[in-house]
Write a structure and sequence with these properties.
mainly alpha, Na+/H+ antiporter like fold, Rossmann fold, 3 domains, six-stranded parallel sheet, globular
């Protein structure tokens, strides 16, 4: 016991030291965790000879991470992005497998080895991507929701493949094991979904009377459901995810998420340490060329496949690009798949070394690509137009003249859009969510699909008589570009933009903004005005309350919620 404790402490000290170096070098901490895992692995200090504790920590980290992801995946979100996620997830697997197999054959691998490598290359690391998206506050963005969707589609397919291979490795029938496992999982969901609708709300109301009680319930629910699914022959990932989804509609989901975040961050470190410690580098000199070719295919080819599929479905080049970067690495499922292939005797041992080094390269490369995605996109956006479908109907709309233009309709823009409509002036709404655009168009609202970062679209608009442009997009770089373009061509147009930080607001004002919306400060300013008005009108609170309730009901009907990542 003491030996394990000392190993744990020494490992954490090494993680701290490597993380400190990463922070000084301004590198992603995830890369530091993986390198720390390599250091404590068998090639260097060999501190994980008794790694059962870290393995348990790793599994708990995975469970907490996907449980929190499930808290974001309400049935409404699944409905909104389910179709595009399913098509993109399956399409990416099909195309990546086909191209990967062709590359494997051309490199001289046997057909069975090429198939294994090709399938292994299709799976992306849900755990790493969830962590990166969470760090970037991107889980509630459109591309974040879509990415979560198709990554989960990948995981479900990977789990099915692994179940069949595991059955073959033990000599039992693969198809019968898969069918029986799916039946057990389906029956479990059939029981628990009604339970979550009728019983779970009353339970959470009871537990929420004490914050500590709610904390214990949240941990028990997430880990308990994960354990149940492991017992049924499924996986921790699926169980934790569904546990979160069942609680996603609870009014206490914000509080649950915020309290579990620290636990998630601590335990998920163990996953990256285990991943690094399992890296195998033997015999890799013989496979330098295949490693480079396959790594480039994953880092560049996989995002291109996703961008093509999403462009065909009508999404903007930026949404496709951001979502595409999330598949630019292989996952832990890839390593498990190849390891099982070695176990059943269908693959030689050195193929595991090949896939492992591809994993390290692509995980590191994709991490940098996702962290610096905005900067990368700004440099290459002009080359990505081929991945965006052109809507010829919009060309006619853009020729008209508009007094008011709103860029970004959701949340903040919703009230602004209503004021535009009530003004009786010619207006135009631009939004990058094609599902939302279709809904607004069906309501008779003058709306087109477009990405604010695509300045070509804005330049195509006839701005000669435009009085006001409002951008609810909080990205400073996008608003700066809009300001520079509009102020340079039409000095009469008033520009209202949005910022997250006070320093950003000052820069936007310096660039020529007429007003900067700072969402986090608007509520306090509004309440201050209410307090002043109360001296004149004692019924002001009741009036504002009734007005707000009507507005909130309308927003809820439109599917709007406050981003959960802010509270997590």
């Amino acid at each position: 016991m003491q030996e394990v404790f000392i190993q744990l402490c020494l490992t954490l000290l090494i993680v701290l030291g490597v993380s400190f170096i990463m922070r000084i070098l301004k590198q992603p901490l995830i890369i530091g965790y993986i390198f720390a895992g390599i250091l404590v692995g068998p090639f260097f200090f060999n501190l994980l000879s008794k790694s059962e504790t870290f393995t348990i920590f790793s599994e708990m980290g995975i469970a907490f991470l996907l449980f929190l992801v499930g808290l974001h995946l309400s049935p409404k979100v699944i409905k909104d992005v389910g179709k595009i996620s399913l098509i993109t997830g399956i399409g990416q697997i099909v195309f990546t497998s086909a191209i990967g197999y062709a590359i494997g054959i051309l490199l001289g691998f046997t057909p069975i080895v090429a198939i294994y490598i090709a399938v292994a290359l299709t799976f992306s690391s849900t755990i790493i991507i969830m962590k990166l998206l969470s760090d970037k506050d991107a889980l509630e963005k459109l591309y974040g929701k879509i990415s979560i969707g198709f990554l989960l589609v990948q995981d479900l397919i990977a789990i099915m493949i692994l179940i069949v291979l595991s059955a073959f490795s033990t000599g039992s029938g693969g198809s019968s094991v898969l069918i029986w496992t799916l039946v057990k999982g389906g029956l479990t969901l059939a029981i628990f979904f009604p339970f979550s609708y009728f019983v779970l709300p009353k339970l959470t109301d009871f537990f929420a009377k004490s914050s500590e009680f709610l904390f214990i319930f949240t941990i028990s629910w997430g880990l308990g459901f994960s354990a149940l699914f492991v017992f049924l022959g499924l996986s921790i990932e699926v169980g934790a995810l569904i546990a979160g989804i069942l609680l996603s509609m609870s009014p206490y989901s914000y509080e649950m998420g915020s309290r579990l975040r620290t636990l998630r961050d601590f335990f998920i470190i163990s996953f990256f340490i285990i991943l690094g410690s399992q890296m195998v580098f033997a015999d890799i000199k013989e496979f330098i060329v295949p490693v480079i070719i396959f790594s480039l295919f994953i880092l560049i080819g996989n995002p291109l496949i996703v961008m093509t599929l999403m462009g065909f479905m009508g999404y903007s080049k930026k949404t496709g690009f951001m979502a595409g970067l999330t598949v630019a690495q292989i996952s832990e499922f890839s390593l498990i798949l190849v390891a099982l292939g070695v176990k059943v005797g269908q693959l030689p041992q050195h193929i595991l070394s090949l896939v492992t080094i591809i994993g390290l390269i692509t995980i590191a490369g994709s991490t940098y690509m996702i962290i610096y995605s905005e900067q990368i996109y700004n440099k290459i956006s002009g080359l990505l137009s081929i991945f965006e479908r052109k809507n010829f109907k919009e060309k006619d709309i853009l020729k008209k003249q508009y007094k008011y233009i709103l860029i970004g309709e959701n949340r903040i823009g919703f009230s602004i859009m209503k004021s535009f409509i009530s003004s009786k002036k010619d207006y135009l709404i631009i939004d990058f969510n094609p599902v939302r655009v279709k809904k607004l168009c069906r309501q008779g609202i003058n709306c087109i699909y477009g990405d604010a970062s695509n300045l070509e679209l804005i330049s195509d608009i006839n701005l000669q008589n435009t009085e006001l442009i409002v951008s609810t997009i909080p990205e400073k770089e996008i608003n700066m570009a809009i300001l520079q373009m509009i102020k340079g061509s039409n000095s009469k147009t008033r520009l209202i933009v949005t910022a997250r930080r006070i320093t950003d607001a000052f820069e936007l004002y310096k660039e020529g903004a007429d007003y900067v919306i700072l969402p986090h400060f608007l509520g306090g300013e509004y309440v201050a005005n209410l307090i002043k008005e109360f001296e004149k009108d004692k019924g002001i609170y009741k009036k504002e309350k009734e007005k707000q309730i009507r507005d909130l009901k309308e927003r809820l009907k439109e599917g709007q919620e406050y981003p959960k990542t802010r509270r997590e």
